[in-house]
Amino acid sequence: MKRAIEIIRLDFPAVVVGGGAAGCLAAARLAGSGLRVGLVEKAFLSRSGCLAAGVNALNACVGRGRTPEDYVDYALKDAHGIARRDLLLSMAERLNSEVEFLESIGLGVHKDKEGGRLERGWRNVRVNGENIKPLLAAEVGRHENIVRLERTFVTRLLTDEDKLPANGGRILPGGGKLPADDDKILPWGGRLPTEDDNFQTQEIPSASKSKIVGLVAVSLERNAILLIATERILVSTGGAAGIYRSKNPATSAHDVWYSPFNTGAGLARGMEVGAEMTGLEMRFIALRCRDTLAPTGTLALGAGARQTNSLGEDYERAYGTTTSQRVLAVRRQNSLGNGPCFLSASLAPGDRTSLEKAYLNMRPSQTLKFYEQARANKNGGGDRQNFSGENPGRGELKVEIAASEPCVQGGHTAGGYWVDTNRRATVGGLWAAGDVAGGCPQKYVTGAMAEAEIAAADMAEDYRRRTGNAAGDKEASDSRLETQFLKTAAEILERMNWPAVRPGPGLAKKIKTLAEAKKEGPGRAVDFGWAEIEEALQETMDAYAGGLGRDYRYSSAELEQAEDRLRTIAETADGLAAGDFAELRRVWEVREKILVARNLVGHLKARKETRWPGFGEYADYPEAREEFFLHVNSRWRGDQVEIIKRPLVTADKYEHVAGGSDRDDARDDARDGRSKS
Amino acid sequence: MSVRIDRGDCLGCGNCLDVCPGDLLSLDGDGKAVISEPGRCWGCCACMKECPRGCLKFYLSPASGGSGLVMTAGRVKKAGRDPGGGGVRWRISDGTNVLAEFLTRPEDDGY
Question: Is A382 among the domain residues?
Fold first, then answer.
């Protein structure tokens, strides 16, 4: 007989959702400020997130002789102009202190002869970071006031408004006229934003009046539904992998470059409560070692390898040097018939061992692949002195490279929550940091950690300001929250065909009574599983929204087809049931991916240009267009995506613009006991 | 890519269960470790490092150019150090011969 599902009520001044690098650090910082923190993690803190296997370099730091401004310039150029200066600057200023912090907790940082950090280019430091995630998890362990909620996933965020924010953003006609004279020409012919481009005077409401009051989560560890009351949530879950079809879907659903366990949960939870998102259309396509999806930076920056095609030509410079252009280079060479493309270098045996160890510290499959490759090469056999079997003394390194399937994330590119400089999202009481936060590309590990520190400091400040200012109608809001809790529990239990709950049948009855009347859905004679729905999603995105199989190209007509198909897929997914919590987790994940995909398609449609040709090409609009020198943002409203075009943020600070009528705001402020800043 | 578990050697200690970033590992009815959905493994090799018997083996699927080589790993314990401070010992083999062995440590030189 099945164990009864426990219903557990919890309270925290702050909750962190997602225990990767950003989440672990934020929880530690919040706890250090004296707050009791709930840290929710879908798997295990010791290895979860993007750093599961480790890292062999910290890709974001400010090297000797450089300044944070240099990093901002670099990241803006790499994003072809579409990124937030305020976010990049506040991050860049903290990058080096994050490197120092990691070193202080035991990360192995390579040193040069003078004892300085060994830099790999001016933005990278070399490390032996196999244990980087256990080290960060150990930081969490040092704080008694962090409650670790592992093997737990969040099913819904709760706000004080049942309905979505009423005041929609207006759509800006174009992005305004740009001054003609500017010397900051970008590689693709455009220009970098300047102060003059900041049209902040056109006030589009962004700060929603709704506020976070809690969240509901499912704990596999406790076989329980957790009803958590909190006024502060940091989302640090990472981006969304697995919305597009991967290279080998038949043998490995997760043969992907980005953590496949990042399913877009954090994005989806925010979308559901109307949080504004930005830049989803800037999908990230990674240039990877073919077959293992291992990062290529280790070869290019570490071993000095050059891109060459099958004719032995070094073609890279012809396409430019931004991340997007490097991807474009490989794609174009392949479509010209010049492929396959390789990263090539000549290595001494000692260097080769170092390289193999570097991959063991980050993507062990690539080291194994070197040996598989040597075995496949007739001359090489199993001889590890030799990569390609051509030169026994100095090994010729030749690794085939390929572009990955697209994903949505804010760590390399800029897709994610629209936040202010303090990393507050547009819903009150909600913050975002790391890969789930948008507008701030090139953040990598140290940038995600910097964002976590910024958000945690602001959350702690918010806590200090708001305590002692207790709301007068607390009891009324408590009973309202209780109802929301039980309704949300009903949403879960209904999918599981009403299993027994603890404590007791009284609660079960209460939950069942509160369950929403069942929506009249389409009739269905066949029950599908989550895996079939996932396949449908990935197939649709691949074919109609510029996936790997279409060489990342899409057209308006295809995107419309994607919208229609995704609507049907979403409806079918609404009918998914689960036998236990492990299965329910997969059901939730596939629904998260569908929601992110639907928003992504809205963004792709809205940016009527080709801004980052390596990451995607809009067939109807094959060039970058000056009028799209803006942020494409969105809110999910009921069953469709609402697009908001915002002027580029080029100032050092950005605050959300309060929405709604003044009268409503005054009333809300009085009720919340919060002053308008 | 995925891991294969030698059931015969598995002690059922459960060390591997608590490190999988995808929460894919569990103990079956006989108390042996199993991977619930091998196709969803990301190949991070975290589980292998915690296995005291080296019975978790990583391999590349034929679609990724794999021809049957396997890789194992074991954590080197070092008293008084932070997590993973002792490093990891790696071995690549074809089932009969060991093709390569590595010790990766935080204090290594390298790329």
Answer: yes
Query: Judging by DSSP bridges, how do beta strands A108-109 and A125-129 pair with one another?
Result: antiparallel
Provide the angle, in degrees to the nearest 10, between the axes of the packed helices A349-360 and A364-376.
130
Contact A108 B108 (CB under 8 A): yes
Q: Which residue does chain A place closest to B86, by CA atoms?
A: A131
Binary contact (A303, B111; C-beta < 8 A): yes
List the 24-63 stretch of B: residues with Cβ below 8 A of A.
36-37, 39-46, 58-63
Inside any domain, residue A2: no
Q: pLDDT of A523-536, one tens digit each?
A: 888 889 999 999 99
**Alpha carbon distance A482, A274 (integer Å):** 21
The DSSP output letter for B17 is G
Judge whether A1 and A117 are in contact, CB under 8 Å. no
Distance from CA of B88 to the nearest CA of A (A): 9
Low-confidence spans in chain B with pLDDT less than 50: none
> Given CB atoms, is A230 within the 8 Å cutoff of chain B?
no
- The residue written with tokens 């590309």 in the block is A441
Between positions 258 and 287 of A, the ones with CB within 8 A of B are 259-261
Look up residue A300 and give its DSSP letter: I
CB A358 within 8 Å of CB A302: yes
Q: What is the pLDDT of residues A424-461, one digit of tens each?
A: 999 999 999 999 999 999 999 999 999 999 999 999 99
For A311, the domain range is: 287-403
Half-sphere exposure of A404 (CA within 13 A, CB side): 27
Contact B69 A259 (CB under 8 A): no
The number of distinct structural domains making up chain A is 1
Domains of chain B are 2-104 (3.30.70.20)
CA angle A566, A570, A574 (to 5 degrees): 170
Q: Is there a contact between A285 and A409 (Cβ–Cβ < 8 Å)?
A: no
Q: Decide if A233 is inside a domain.
A: no
Q: Which amino acid is at A324?
A: S
Instruction: Name the E strands within A12-64.
Output: 14-17, 37-40, 55-58
Pairwise CB contact (< 8 Å): A372 & B20? no
Could B102 and A151 be called an inter-chain contact, meaning their C-beta atoms sit closer than 8 Å? no
Q: What is the pLDDT of residue A116?
A: 82
Q: What is the CATH number of the domain that holds A330?
A: 3.90.700.10
